[in-house]
Inverse folding.
C-alpha cells in the first residue's frame, strides 16, 4: 500500500509540475504576442512572436494562436518587401523579398479563420499590384484581381477587399488594361474558386 501511495503521490507531483509549466508557457505566449506587437509598431523588422517555452508548442495550440502568429510573421515579411524600392542594382533582392512575403501570405491565406485569411489575401493583391506598378506586366493585375476576389469570397463582410477590387477594376478600364479571360471565375493563388470578376452593383 505504501508503494501505491508513493506512486500516486509521484503522479500528482508530476501533474502539478506540468500544470505549472503550462501556465508559465501560456503567460509567455501572451506576453510574447503583446511585446512583439509593441516592437512591430515601431520597428517591424525587429519584432518576434516566439517566446521561450518549456513545453514546446503545447500552450500555443491550447490558446489557438498559431494562425495569429503565422499572420504576424507574414505581415512582417510584407512590410519588409514594401519598404524596398527597386533599382537596377537591387532588383533581385527586391524580387526575392517579395516572393518570400507572397509565400508567407499564401500560407496565412489558408487559415480557417475568415478574417485572417481575408487579410492575407488582400495583401497578396496589394503585392501583385505593386509588382505591376514596378513593371512586372499585366499578369500581375490578373493576380491582384484574383486575390481581392478570393478575399471577398473568404470573408464576404470584408469591405476593404470589395473597395480594393472595385478600384482596381475601374483602373483597368480607365487605363485600357486588358486582363486575362476568366480572371474572376478561376482559381486564385490560394486555391479558392473566385466569385465573378466584379462585385454586386459595380457594373463590371
Amino acid at each position: 500500500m505504501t508503494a501505491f501511495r508513493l506512486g500516486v503521490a509521484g503522479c500528482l507531483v508530476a501533474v502539478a509540475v506540468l500544470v505549472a509549466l503550462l501556465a508559465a508557457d501560456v503567460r509567455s505566449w501572451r506576453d510574447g504576442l503583446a511585446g512583439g506587437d509593441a516592437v512591430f509598431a515601431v520597428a517591424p523588422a525587429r519584432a518576434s512572436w516566439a517566446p521561450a517555452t518549456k513545453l514546446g508548442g503545447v500552450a500555443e495550440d491550447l490558446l489557438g494562436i498559431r494562425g495569429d502568429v503565422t499572420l504576424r510573421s507574414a505581415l512582417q515579411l510584407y512590410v519588409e518587401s514594401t519598404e524596398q524600392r527597386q533599382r537596377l542594382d537591387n532588383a533581385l533582392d527586391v524580387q526575392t523579398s517579395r516572393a518570400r512575403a507572397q509565400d508567407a501570405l499564401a500560407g496565412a491565406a489558408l487559415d480557417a479563420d475568415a478574417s485572417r485569411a481575408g487579410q492575407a489575401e488582400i495583401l497578396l493583391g496589394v503585392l501583385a499590384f505593386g509588382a505591376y506598378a514596378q513593371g512586372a506586366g499585366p499578369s500581375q493585375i490578373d493576380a491582384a484581381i484574383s486575390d481581392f476576389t478570393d478575399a471577398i469570397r473568404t470573408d464576404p463582410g470584408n469591405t476593404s477587399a470589395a473597395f480594393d477590387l472595385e478600384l482596381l477594376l475601374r483602373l483597368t478600364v480607365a487605363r485600357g488594361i486588358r486582363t486575362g479571360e476568366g480572371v474572376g471565375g478561376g482559381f486564385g493563388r490560394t486555391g479558392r474558386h473566385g466569385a465573378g470578376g466584379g462585385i454586386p452593383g459595380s457594373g463590371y
Summary: The chain has a mean pLDDT of 84.
